[in-house]
Design a protein that fits this description.
By secondary structure, this protein is α+β, with helices and mostly antiparallel strands. It has a single domain, classed as Ribosomal protein L22/L17 (Ribosomal Protein L22, Chain A, Alpha-Beta Complex). 33% of the residues lie in helices and 33% in strands. The chain contains 3 helices and 5 strands; from the N terminus they run βαααββββ. The chain has a 3-stranded antiparallel β-sheet. Strands 3-4 form a two-stranded antiparallel ribbon. A hairpin with a 5-residue loop joins β3 and β4. The longest helix has 20 residues, at 46-65.
Length: 118
Amino acid sequence: MEAKKGFSAFARSLPMSAKKVRPLADHLRRKKVSDVLALLEVLPHKSAHFLKKVIQSAAANAVFQDKQLDEEQLVVAKLMIDEGPSSTRIWPRARGRADRLKKRTCHITVEVAEKGAK
């Protein structure tokens, strides 16, 4: 029997630091998609909103591309949070000086697969 491939979704250049998203993402790996979405619905983190949208998209891709797939058996197989491009801003300081402020972004990559598939 052939192993089913995972179905993925991406979100690019989200306005949030990858360092803030990773701790929440660490709790979601290898869990059922339905449980993850229920958890993200009630969490107050800004990153929970972004993660929920990307995981929903990956689950929808899986159901659309493979009609025989059981939606209840989907698991978050891979969840990567990478740094995106940073933009630099000037932050005024005392006595006419200026500091640099980096506006960081992140990329989220989610892959869902049927439970038991590799």
